[in-house]
């Protein structure tokens, strides 16, 4: 998931440098969403991994 977020971030940077503002904004928005989803899943996995097994 983090790899996809980084790819969209790089696409956004390249598009911004080349002057494609709409594509850059869309790619940056997708990258932000994917990064937040990654963080949520990461925190959930940390919490579940620290529970004592019964």
Automatic annotation (TrEMBL):
Residues spanning the signal sequence: none
NCBIfam families linked to this entry: PRK13682.1-1, PRK13682.1-4
Organism phylogeny: Bacteria, Bacillati, Bacillota, Bacilli, Bacillales
InterPro entries: DUF1328 (IPR009760)
Keywords in alphabetical order: Cell membrane, Membrane, Transmembrane, Transmembrane helix
Membrane spanning stretches: 29-48
Pfam families: DUF1328
Domain of life: Bacteria
Protein name as catalogued: DUF1328 domain-containing protein
